[in-house]
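Exercise 7.
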Amino acid sequence: MAWDRIHPRLTTRSAWIDHEGELPLLEGTLLRLQVDRLPGGQDPLPIWLWSSKTVMTSEDVDLRWQAFLRRFDLEHTFRMLKQTLGWTRPKLRIPEAADRWTWLVIAAHTQLRLTREAAADLRHPWEKPAEPARLTPARVRRGFRNLRSHLVCPARAPKPSTPGPGRPLGSKNRRPATRYDVGKTVKRPESITERNRLRP
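Solution. The predicted structure, written as tokens, is:
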């Protein structure tokens, strides 16, 4: 069910907490998502979704509520990219290096998706068995160490080398790295009451 051209009024919170004057009105479509039953026999309450698109077809409505249900998959994907594949681990100094590292992490995730049929399901005792074509990237990663020896390596064997002498002990760094602005870091008040209390 959808109501078209609804005008939700913004409240003074989050990005609008410091806004002066009258708040703007945003046009959009309000979607009411209702399920028949919930696990455990609980009484299902409707979920209200809002889209900035004003004129929507039935296909547009279906796309919105299906995307809402898939948000858990996206959250778990970002969690794996950060915790397992180390997306946010390196301390990169320039934006171009961050872009290159992001593409490397995406390539690693893609490789895990493509090799899932060849990986063995090394599951934990509490996990249910899964078909080879339905393994998650995290479960493929567990069995990837058994696949790596059978994969073709396009690179040559590494050559032995010794590291350079580096900067002498006790000397100062005469070429400091370039610093980039990370954006606004001021902590915003979490509520209207706190904002009013902090104002002079």
